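Hi support team,

I've been running sequence recovery on a batch of backbones for a student project. Most finish fine, but this one hangs at about 90% for roughly twenty minutes before it completes. I'm not sure whether the input is malformed or the queue is just slow. I've pasted the structure tokens below so you can try to reproduce it. Let me know if you need the job ID as well.

Thanks,
M.K.
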């Protein structure tokens, strides 16, 4: 078959079309944000101080979000395929109440330390309430998009994702340009878009009977036990992929070189974005086959090989675009960063491969194994980053991220191999009404 015919066949293939839709949706938001950089960096509308406040806002959102979500999004994904629809609706509704309680606790915690936060980080007092509230709304929206993804409603996922992006940035531009709201206008744009999508989500849940009030202590306790390991896991992910600013700042790396490296990281993590998009299609496939009892070594191998094929082709295309950008779109001063780019891209590719295996731990909610993997990974990351960055600076950080990812991969395989063996060797369970009914 010629290359042209292969491309035509891929375009007609439902799997590739679904993955393409997810990729376009995920990159659409990033693309709009990129196109608005000239506006958001124009001192007439947003001063460097405004962008500094927004950076502080984003950093604190990243830190607070895991405390509020407690792994409940991952839990919902597994429960969707494991439980009956009625049981899933109960746990799904409970998640929102738990997240709301965690939001209030976060507000109280920030309020207690408001003076310290102001003195050390210059955190505006309004952020004490804004950050937890928006983190809760982000959690609610992610629950919505995850549910739509699990129901395999690809077009609805894309339509709502694109609409949310357009509302957010359109409102931000209007508020910043015409009402001169500065960083407040940007945050209001984010808030209104989240409120709008969650109001639509409430209608969607009621329409599809996913709202069921039934408080169960055991359900809450199980979610809390699963949430702590996931919180630690998210911390380990932070250590694996976002430590360059932390450790390089500690060792006072030259800001010029750091800027070159930062652009390389931005381009390299595009591979990670592609992997996330492919997983939006692959993860429900895997979970559906496990829950229905049809998962075998051959079927999972087939899913995994398809995943590798799609990920490899798209990653190579992404690298080609990045190389083109280095030579023709980006200032030549950044060209020395291409060597860092390939290391970061390789790290993102390896991470994407081992995350497929990690999905088995998430599906079975192997709390102790997840906690062990995360804790060992954190300890190794701190030790390796400290050693490598102190001696090799930027090269040390790039290579340390790669080494840490390889260690994490080995840990995941070590702790998951028996889980995979038991999962693929068990007898098929009776199908749940939800899996046998709706659209799955």
């Amino acid at each position: 078959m010629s290359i042209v015919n292969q491309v035509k066949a891929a375009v007609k293939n439902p799997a590739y079309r679904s993955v393409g839709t997810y990729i376009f949706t995920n990159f659409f938001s990033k693309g709009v944000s990129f196109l608005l950089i000239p506006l958001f960096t124009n001192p007439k509308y947003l001063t460097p101080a405004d962008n500094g406040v927004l950076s502080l806002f984003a950093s604190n959102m990243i830190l607070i979000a895991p405390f509020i979500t407690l792994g409940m999004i991952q839990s919902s994904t597994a429960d969707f395929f494991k439980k009956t629809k009625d049981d899933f609706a109960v746990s799904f509704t409970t998640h929102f109440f738990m997240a709301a309680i965690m939001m209030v606790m976060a507000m109280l915690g920030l309020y207690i330390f408001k003076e310290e936060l102001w003195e050390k980080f210059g955190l505006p007092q309004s952020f004490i309430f804004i950050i937890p509230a928006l983190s809760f709304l982000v959690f609610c929206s992610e629950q919505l998009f995850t549910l739509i993804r699990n129901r395999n409603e690809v077009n609805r996922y894309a339509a709502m994702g694109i609409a949310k992006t357009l509302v957010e940035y359109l409102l931000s531009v209007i508020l910043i340009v015409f009402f001169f709201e500065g960083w407040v206008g940007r945050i209001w744009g984010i808030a209104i878009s989240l409120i709008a999508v969650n109001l639509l989500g409430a209608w969607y849940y009621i329409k599809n009977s996913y709202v069921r009030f039934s408080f169960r202590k055991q359900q809450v306790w199980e979610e809390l036990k699963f949430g702590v390991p996931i919180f630690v896991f998210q911390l380990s992910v932070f250590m694996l992929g976002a430590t360059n600013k932390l450790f390089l700042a500690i060792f006072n790396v030259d800001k010029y070189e750091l800027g070159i490296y930062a652009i390389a990281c931005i381009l390299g993590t595009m591979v990670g974005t592609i992997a996330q998009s492919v997983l939006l299609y692959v993860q429900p496939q895997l979970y559906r086959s496990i829950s229905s009892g049809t998962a075998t070594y051959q079927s999972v191998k087939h899913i995994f090989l398809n995943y590798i094929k799609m990920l490899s082709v798209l990653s190579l295309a992404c690298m080609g675009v990045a190389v083109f950008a280095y030579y023709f779109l980006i200032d030549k001063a950044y060209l020395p960063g291409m060597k860092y780019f390939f290391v970061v891209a390789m790290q993102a590719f390896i991470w994407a491969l081992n995350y497929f295996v990690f999905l088995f731990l998430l599906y079975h909610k192997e709390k102790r194994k997840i906690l062990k993997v995360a804790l060992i990974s954190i300890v190794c990351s701190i030790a390796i980053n400290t050693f490598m960055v102190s001696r090799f600076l930027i090269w040390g950080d790039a290579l340390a991220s790669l080494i840490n990812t390889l260690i994490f991969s080995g840990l995941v395989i070590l702790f998951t191999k028996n889980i995979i063996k038991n999962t693929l060797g068990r007898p098929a369970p009776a199908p749940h009404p939800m899996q046998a009914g709706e659209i799955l």
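--
Follow-up from support: It reproduced on our side and the slowdown came from queue contention, not your input. The chain has a mean pLDDT of 83. No action needed from you.
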